[in-house]
């Protein structure tokens, strides 16, 4: 049974009661962000006596006309709205706007008087009468007529009634018109609504359609032709069930549904934009991806699945392999290391991904629509701000024997270098910080001057480091709470305004300590026996004290290196400020990713370098899998609300705790460390109605194209209500009662008659007309929704059709399209969020930057261009064509249909295909002119004494449209400046990389070679050219510098003989551009054509690989809608 | 359409459903093809990119944005500061934190002059552009958020310093669609590779991927290097036509028993793709321009990319961004006298040529030309680690210049001002959100109403800010 939470909003039965916020204690009001609806759970108190007339006549019009534009339901500038008394009393970012009964203490009055800094309204001024009316109203206790209470109450009521926040019900299965149609209870829920709309369901689809639908739905791959035949022929009553079970048990299931989860988890193999100092690949990504695939294949209970991804370090501390799950948190963007944004990303993926709550909306202000106050956002923020990361091995790699030992030794060496480098840098940083106590203390006087994270400055070793200033602030705050006796004088002195300092310092110091608190540290007391003249002097006195203690400590350690403390407890107390683990001078013992801001720029670069060394090793294809575990920090801090989302504007402290919309108004602060495990358990708690609903809805959407709720990651008030609310709850109940088994939910859905319906339009015209009218979007599911293949399904299906899908699972990703041929499933293609290959975008792949609730589905010509022109598609067509029995065209067509469409062609289709092939073959592409085939373009060595070596000719690998060279860049990293164009070229950088333009003889006879080499530049030493026959050797050689030289000869040739036109750099690489475009004429030849060749005219790029007629036919089938859509 | 909570997809899908219910399929292809064989706008596949009307008639219909990545110096280009000469070698009384340390006042090594009837002051670096001074409105009081390239590029291009958000071009394409379905609607050109932050600069964030800018490296001259998959390496045009005819026949047969509008849309997309191969080849081939025009722009990579931009705009492309080059060329921390001169020499001529060319074609009044970088530079000289002056300038987000010309802009105007040294905007400070609000306004959008529902929020380019800079509107 699903336990029913009494009431998530803390409302009793019946109408919600508006409570004037004056009822809140002063302390509660001081928390500017206390959500209005919390007040509901408090007992009602009487509001001040009303003066309705005056309010309506004088006050409300002013508020509406002059204030509400910026402080109303639409906008809440400064976090303030003025359309409710409670809102005014609660106030905004600057605190309460109205202090009932006390105009002098009310910001509203101060603002409209415009005597101080705060001047409202911003343009113009209220009349003195209006100001006076407001003044009188506040003085009277700011009465606000009850029945005129604003929309706030409506909101609360809406929240309390919102379907998604209600406990999950376990509704009875409805009765329907035709119970025999139902195959699982799912059908009764669907049929009941169809009945109500007067629509019949569609008949069951045929077997071929069903197996194709099921195979794609459960595995993302098409069935084989044999599987289709077997299923079509299987007459056993449980044929369909057997098929479902087989597919659910296949490994491909986890790959397909795992990828769906990776959309939720904004999976990427790279971090996004990083500074050049940092490795951009994410070490833990593949281990996370593989963990997800395994979890689906193992049908890991969904509650455990979620808990592991958020808190595996605590939930299953004895299973290191589970740590890979935490990639859910760590594969997000890195935002150049700005922690606030990293945390925001994590809150978002957890909030929307697991519960359909747009928690991240509350980063800057209370959620505009949903009951998620800013305090709740920062309650979760507090969970994530207290984490750091730990690189952890989660399995064995493929290496064995000595290779493995060598790898492990190298890894250990690099890890140790990183550890040592980190430790040394931490020590250095701490020592420098101990010498800068004055700077960091004085920085506390005006925190606004301390730079925020994300404002990167180049920090030198002697500069003040903003992260330290912030650490000092946190430390002093913590000390203040404990009324720590070391810094008590500092606190008192720092509180004095600068101008009053000389007058008030002595009194502040003399004030006795509160009874029961420890006395001021005697050393500090004596340092402040006389009052300092300025706050700067106070800081210096502290610095001097600390310096003295530091010296003592140095000496103590010289005397006894094992010393752990100073004997004098007063000195020891001061020493601890400098040296304790939580000292403001110490860098936490964490990896560079969460500590880099404590170091000067040069150290940061060096630390990243050490970490990159480790990561480079772990990113090798054979490396064992490593995860990055998220673990709690050694010292925990309390979060504060950042007003308007700005860390520069910290507000009240909030405890780490769960969202009140789920946990209720009395949500207890998390107790266990940073609270991650408690948070994870709260997400899957039986009292949380959102998590199971969100998950069954995602599963449903995976089968029907859209969910019962069409906004799968937003179950808030602005979401469209579910099409079948009872079904949603019934499925959610089954999920929880069935031990959170995902596969059990799949079975309930795919075994249903609903799922097995045909997808076409109703055959009956009247039914069709009615369906078009009452249910044009098929929300009632009177038929199945056809499915267009996703990018992964499309690419994987092409590989499956051509028979070269590589089924290997897991491991590091490799580029999909542009790189070495990659025939693995698309899931294993490299997802580089910073340089996402265009094809992913073209085919609506999930944006790896952000949690993706559902993919957009576009139809754009770029998709068609890919299918028409990309070599990947042509290669599949070529492979298909090669396998056909071409001597029997009808059989070949049948084979092609089997492999691509998994069916036989109709006779008409076969005829059309055969006719196409005949036409295509007869109008075959004209072959390239035979003259062009004689030329090739390469490089090779030149021995200055013996000349070139025709046997060493190697083709130049890259053609850029104008010439041949080593690669897309010129010079190429390997072949340098080597380049051959129609007119001439440029030799490579040294004699080993000379260029060879080659003519290969197709004839037997005699040819006349005519050519002139021109070198036009004066600088350098020109080039040296060679005319070489493969059997006769060097025919002529000459150096050419700023001039020209004739290279002509008459040569006897056999078919296959080569004549090479070779150029080298001579003695140096400088100004070696030249022109040399020989012509060759047959003097006497057999065969007689071609009879003349012209290097310029015949110049060509790589020989095209045209698709033959069968290849063209195969490509057409691969491009067809029948291939792309699943009925 | 833009007000539909589920975005344009929902509506177009419904439209298609309605149309197919009315039997669009039966009417056949001819009826939805326009006279030139191109798809009628509202029948475009999926409707995502079809031309749409803005909130009100905009003065500009398309945008070309010269992005001087790295950060051009305002005091050396469009914001003259004679006071720097008086303070030469001396500290100035303004001390603001920038990325690195800077020292004394560093007067501009370039001469300024007044141009046109308006007397707009422009430095010699942009003397050719200055011939159009009376068409240009300079905002001298731009303000960004931090003096670092990455966040500032994101802010200028996508309206948020850090979070992945759609770029201005993506928003414009989402709002207006494109007038030519055979070309990408938003093109970002950058010679030699990517700028800092790579394709994020023209990304589509949470908007559908079709709105993302298409990257083109104009250093390539061959069309198949410019546009992905635009040329077949394995089939002639005649062979492709034959393939598409068979494909059409198969798809029509397949569609007959089905009612999914996506089937029709996909059939059309192949026809569009077939035409696109020709049209894209044509649009990017500047050799088809008369010699006179090629000479006007100059036979340089910047001349060529600017001329390609005009050819694209002329063909209905909505938004073209022209980057200066890979990395951050304008980031002159050292030797600014030589370096800024060289960068400006690259683009001054092409900018002037583009404006003149747009004018002679009657396109200037509805094309918005935007010029600027991600921030400006300090009026003080940058110091190296040893405190020595590098004769360059550090990043400066406190005040810098951007100018606009063309559609809806009041030429010869100046908006806002920096202090007497050019460090900080002191008069009418203008945020990047304000700039974006103004660009959208010129295109016919209320920036507060051009929204997209994502993650429970109606997002907009200007986040929760932005005021239209009215003083520069014609």
Assign the structural class of chain A, choosing from mainly alpha, mainly beta, alpha/beta, alpha+beta, or little secondary structure: alpha+beta
Radius of gyration of chain B: 24 Å
Tally the beta strands of chain B: 19
Rg estimate of chain A, integer Å: 38 Å
Low-confidence stretches of chain A: 1-50
**So, CATH architecture of chain B?**
3-Layer(aba) Sandwich
Q: How many beta-strand runs of chain A?
A: 25
Query: Tell me, what's the shape of chain B?
Result: globular
**Physical arrangement of strands within the biggest beta sheet of chain A:** 9-6-14-21-17-18
What best-fitting shape of chain A do the alpha-carbon axes yield?
globular
Main sheet of chain A, how many strands, which sense, barrel?
6 strands, antiparallel
As residue ranges, the low-confidence spans of chain B are 1-46
Count of spatially separate domains of chain B: 1
Bin the strand percentage of chain A.
Answer: 5-15%
| Main pleated-sheet profile of chain B | 9 strands, mixed
